Amino acid sequence: MTDPPAPKRTLPPLTALRAAAAVARTGGFASAARALGVTPSAVSHQVRRLEQWLGAPVFERDGQATRPTPMGADLCRAVTDAFENVEAALAAAQARCAPSTLRIAALPLFANAWLIPRLGGFEQAYPKLSLDIDTGAHIADLRAREADVAIRTALPADPTLETRKLLDIRGTPVCAPPLASTLRRPRDLASATVIELSVGAKGWPDWLAAAGAADVTPARVLRFDTLLGALGAAVAGRGVMLAPTPLIWAAPEARALAAPFPDKKIDAGSYVLALRRDAGAASQAFAAWVAAEMRADLPRLRGLDRS
After folding, report:
1. What is the pTM of this model?
2. Strands across the sheet containing 193-197
3. How far, in whole angstroms, is CA 74 from its chain's centroid?
4. pLDDT at position 4 over 60
5. Which residue, 197, 297, 195, 180, is CA-closest to 247?
6. pLDDT at 99 over 80
7. From start to end of the chain, where are the E strands?
């Protein structure tokens, strides 16, 4: 006796799934339409098709706000992951067929502490792809093709770029343990040397204000043009550095540091990966690989965060 044939599995239109995922990701029909390059009415039509196929609403509309239902949130999350996996697989297949050089612009801390230790896995997957890595502090102009992929903490808004958030960061003071033992409260920084960067130096005033010490002026400032230079000075006991956690703890030398005020942090933005929307297969494959590696590594990074 033979087994009965398995029932046929059907799927809703992929355009409807993509539209719903875009609404969930961007927070609205208009923003989803801009992301997909279609009209809001087209997005609305596709979402209705999906809801009709399911027989249940995917989103709740409350005035101007659009929120996924619990079922819709789960579905859109799974659909987004599935589309990303398909895109990554296609990009990987293309990249293997077209040997080339990929130019990556990454901030020094990210490149040295996180990216370079993992590059072996990417190189194994793409043995014919050469990598040109720039760890300068300048912002590479992707539109002018100064790089294929950029990893920064801030990027100007640009509709020609595709961006992916990799990691939220918080700023908190770190220093050598002997110095940390002398800092009982934020006001003690009035007699300390603070280490800052020649770009983004407003971090310390923001942190002091958030810590209730806006009127405090540190005794001295030691300024560097790279985060790695600032980190080296902090490890050497030269002053107190406002460090991006949890990524700072991925740098082996940083593990000798202490956080004197572990409960006082400020929002320091995010590490973001960007590439042109018309980027080639190698860029897409690298972007997908970095995003997947970061998702897998987030629990470890958070576990390293002693601040």
Report:
1. 0.65
2. 130-134, 101-106, 149-152, 266-276, 161-174, 240-245, 193-197, 220-224
3. 22
4. no
5. 297
6. no
7. 59-62, 65-68, 101-106, 130-134, 149-152, 161-174, 193-197, 220-224, 240-245, 266-276
